[in-house]
Write a structure and sequence with these properties.
Largest sheet: 2 strands, antiparallel
Strand order of the largest sheet: 1-2
Number of helices: 0
Helix content: under 10%
Shape: rod-shaped
Strand content: 35-45%
Radius of gyration: 28 Å
Structural class: mainly beta
Distance between the termini: 91 Å
């Protein structure tokens, strides 16, 4: 029997006259944009915030893409639904771009038509 002085290892064995810790405690992140690592001095899983820009998250908004971790949690970039048609209102609905016709006044580029 030996002790490797690491409370994250649950089984310590002697290998070539050296105490080796095995059967490490596995920590699982409980929230997005966090990781949990075992603290060798306590044997507890400590929560750590993931650095900004990490991509291990989903902001649960189907109208965003490229979700990343930020200091405020997970956020994504809004989908670009703009069709460059002034006669439509461009929106995202449940992850799908929708271009709805409108009655707004617009310029068609033809000098022969009236505004």
């Amino acid at each position: 029997m030996c002790n490797d002085n690491n409370l994250c290892t649950q089984t310590d064995i002697c290998v070539d006259e050296v105490c080796v810790g095995t059967n490490e405690i596995t920590c699982t992140a409980t929230a997005e944009c966090t990781v949990e690592q075992c603290n060798p001095s306590t044997g507890n899983c400590d929560v750590q915030t993931v650095a900004d820009g990490a991509t291990n998250c989903d902001d649960d908004n189907k109208c965003t893409i490229n979700d990343i971790c930020t200091e405020n949690g997970c956020s994504g970039t809004p989908m670009d639904c703009i069709d460059n048609n002034p006669c439509t209102n461009d929106v995202c609905s449940n992850g799908v771009c929708v271009n709805i016709n409108n009655d707004d006044k617009c310029e068609d580029g033809n000098t022969c038509t009236q505004k």
